[in-house]
Amino acid sequence: MKPIQAVFNQALRCNSYVAALCSSLLCFGVTAFALAEHRDFVADTELRVVRELAAIAPPLPSLQEQQAKLDREKADFVAKLIREERPSHPDSDEIARIIVDESRKADIDPLFVTAVVRAESMFRHKAVSQRGAKGLMQLMPQTGKHVAKLSNIELRTIEDLHNPETNIRLGIWYLKYLEQRFNGSREKLLVAYNWGPSNLSRALTTKSSYPRESLQYVSKVLSRHTLWSGQLAQHFAGRGATALG
Predict the structure, then answer these.
(1) Which of 59, 92, 188, 245 could join 182 via S-S bond, C-beta 3.0 to 4.6 A?
(2) What is the pTM of this model?
(3) How far is residue 176's CA from residue 187's CA, in Å, rounded to a whole number?
(4) For residue 18, is pLDDT > 70?
(5) What is the DSSP string of 41-82?
(6) In terms of DSSP H, where are the helices of the chain?
């Protein structure tokens, strides 16, 4: 009788284990299902919130859009400077746009380029000097040809130096070349632009002084650049204050 009772008790214990195991598996399954439902609910809620916020708030502009807006504001500022110097200038907006666009491509301050153009030609694209320099940035024909060859900028004829876009593109490339040649010194690159890089190199070798005309030219460009940079900074500061107000 006792062996039979032992077998019976063992069977009961096994059934209890099976029942407990089934119960645990059932609880685990219910919990996993609940967690999955919760994750889906959270994901759906987050997506709905994002969509609602997007419908309320305008999308942030891309970096390209921000750059385009900044370029437009700088071009408007440069156009205003041109009109202050020459109130009846017929192409101030177009020349300002070219200066800003080409300066950004070359990674050079457009106000610095504008100051050079002012000193060279007072924004007259048909200007010709007594020595034969042409256009807005007063490039000598030989210099224009040489720069065009080095930079792969198209210059079909010398008269193309009177084309504002061609002239400014060549002039900016030449400024960058002189900046690199004279170790980033704006004073030296301006002396070289005005007097010639070969003359400047000889003067540096012999420790000779620069011509008074070149020194005056440097002062004219840099002082105007400093003035305009301060005005532009005030313009952007005022715009930011207005936006916050």
Answers:
(1) 188
(2) 0.75
(3) 13
(4) no
(5) HHHHHHHHHHHHHHHHSPPPPPHHHHHHHHHHHHHHHHHHHH
(6) 2-56, 63-85, 92-106, 110-121, 141-151, 164-181, 186-195, 197-206, 212-244
Report the candidate in 193, 185, 191, 184 with the shortest Cα–Cα distance to residue 219. 191
**Do 175 and 111 contact (CB within 8 A), yes or no?**
no
Q: What whole-number distance in Å separates Cα of residue 169 and Cα of residue 150?
A: 13
- What digits encode the pLDDT tens for the residues 125-140? 999 999 999 999 999 9
> Residues for the chain: how many in total?
245
Average pLDDT for 103-117: 98
Tokens of 228: 């305009």
The residue to which tokens 């940035």 are assigned: 137
**Quick one: pLDDT band at residue 5, thresholds 50, 70, 90?**
low
Assigned token pair, 174: 């030449």
